Amino acid sequence: MDHHYHQHVDFGLSREDSIDSNDRKGDENNNNLDLKRGSWTVEEDLTLMNHIALHGEGRWNSLARAAGLKRTGKSCRLRWLNYLRPDVRRGNITLEEQLLILQLHSRWGNRWSKIAQHLPGKTDNEIKNYWRTRVQKQAKQLKCDVNSKEFKDTLHYLWIPRLVERIQASSNSNNQVNIQKTNENIIINNNNNNIVPNVNFTQENYSSTTTTSSENSIGTQISDMSDNCYTNYPLNQGDYGEILISPTGGYVQQGDIFDDNNHHQNMSQLFLDDNVCDNLWNIDDMLFLQQQLN
DNA sequence: AATGGTTGCAACCGCATCTAG
DNA sequence: GCTAGATGCGGTTGCAACCAT
Predict the structure, then answer these.
(1) How far is the CA of A19 from the C1' of B16 (A)?
(2) Residue A163 and residue A80 in one domain
(3) Which of the nucleotides lies closest to A15 (Cα–C1')?
(4) Are residues A194 and A218 in the same domain?
(5) Is the separation of the CB atoms in A95 and A166 below 8 Å?
(6) In the beta sheet, which residues pair with residue A220?
(7) CA-CA 20 to 30 A from A15: which of A29, A217, A222, A229?
């Protein structure tokens, strides 16, 4: 278990005292005072896993009772779906997955479960946490709202192109990823089992399928993009929803940024520095850029 | 070493929707 | 059609681990 495995922490505060009204209804025949909350113990996990292995999942309230777990059905369901399921891949969100999350979120917003459907092994909770801890953090550092045009432009013109570039770099170094650029799509293929979805956006609708070829090559087809994603961004309208279409008016545009000497430098060059990229970009650069544009 | 602040994420909450009787 | 219970979802909370001083 990882370091976040809490050893039987006894919460004694308000959260312990409050039980969901539906749970209350669902457990009226139980003694609610016996219901346990807080972190799961190893013993509870084993009990739940063994019970599901023998009897299957579903009917969570009755499952919890039958398994002898002093937990609500909802708690059991959440523990199973987010942690214990064999096909859950926790941690290590890959570049491809990050790219997909950004793309899908720009289209669907906070529809975490819908986004998670396209990232096999990833839970909605994990994606939601990723968004809050990484993406929203960047917005906060830039002192702009995560839903603002400025920030979405920044994602569109800086973060996503850099992710694509890093995936390409990874492709060149280990030959695991192959990015095909066409006039309409970027198609990412790798030889891992990690990235599975094949998402094909169109203007009016979209379809998505999960595909795995006989060679175990997995395709992720993401959004329409022009051939030169740095200098010829933006892309076709509708790709990222209405907000990310046009660069006009945005403070991040044309692939340009200023360095400390007030010289332009191309954004793609800036992003060759992984340290910059890992933190999305240098906050000082962004603040300076904002000053220049104001 | 001690302490206080920050981060990442597991788990909970409340509400909406679905389903079975 | 109504109702109770079950399930699903997005938002929020709180804590262990980590980090800085």
Answers:
(1) 18
(2) no
(3) B12
(4) yes
(5) yes
(6) A188
(7) A29
Q: How far is the CA of A130 from the C1' of C12 (A)?
A: 15
Angle at A43 between CA A81 and CA A65, to 5 degrees: 65
Task: Name which of A190, A169, A182 is nearest A225 in CA terms.
Answer: A182
Model confidence over A132-147: pLDDT tens digits? Answer: 888 887 787 777 777 7
Strand B nucleotides below 7 A of a protein CB?
A: 7-16
pLDDT of residue A140: 76
Domain range for residue A73? 14-84
Model-wide pTM > 0.70: no
| Nearest nucleotide from residue A113 CA, by C1' atom | C9
Q: A253 and A215 in one domain?
A: yes
Could you give the CA distance from residue A274 to residue A294 in angstroms, rounded to a whole number? 28
Please tell me whether residues A107 and A246 are part of one structural domain.
Answer: yes
Q: Which residue has the tokens 């309208």?
A: A237
Closest alpha carbon to C1' of B8, residue: A133
For A61-84, what is each residue's pLDDT tens digit? 889 988 988 899 999 989 999 999
